[in-house]
Automatic annotation (TrEMBL):
InterPro entries: Dimeric_a/b-barrel (IPR011008), EthD_dom (IPR009799). This is EthD family reductase. Gene3D superfamilies: 3.30.70.100. NCBIfam families: EthD family reductase (TIGR02118). It comes from the Bacteria. Residues 12-84 form the EthD domain.
Length: 106
């Protein structure tokens, strides 16, 4: 699996709840349409382990079969629509990509 990992913080004028509702609602409707999307996990962040990790509201892990499939998704109209919906929201994000390795299953 090749993943796009997004860590996001809400716009300053939004509540945490509003941001999560939007991300899992209206924004999710566009995300589901990404070509080649094989999996999507979303974590609502409700607390930080330590002060230097504070300030984030949620994390998404979008899974694709390969880096090429992710690149195709990032060039798609569906991705452009999702980015357009975000617009000038003024939240923060970190976006990284890489190969997944399963390290443990219980």
């Amino acid at each position: 699996m090749y993943n796009l990992v997004l860590l996001a913080a809400r716009p300053p004028e939004w509540t945490h709840e509003r941001f999560i509702d939007w991300w899992r609602g209206d924004h999710a409707e566009l995300t589901y349409r990404l070509p080649g999307l094989r999996s999507w996990r979303h974590t609502e962040i409700d607390q930080a382990l330590e002060p230097r990790s504070e300030g984030w509201d949620g994390m998404s892990v979008l899974g694709f079969d390969s880096p090429e499939d992710l690149r195709k998704a990032l060039k798609s109209q569906e991705w452009a629509d999702a980015i357009a919906q975000v617009g000038d929201m003024k939240g923060r994000r970190i976006a990284v990509m890489g190969h997944e390795a399963e390290m443990f299953t219980g």
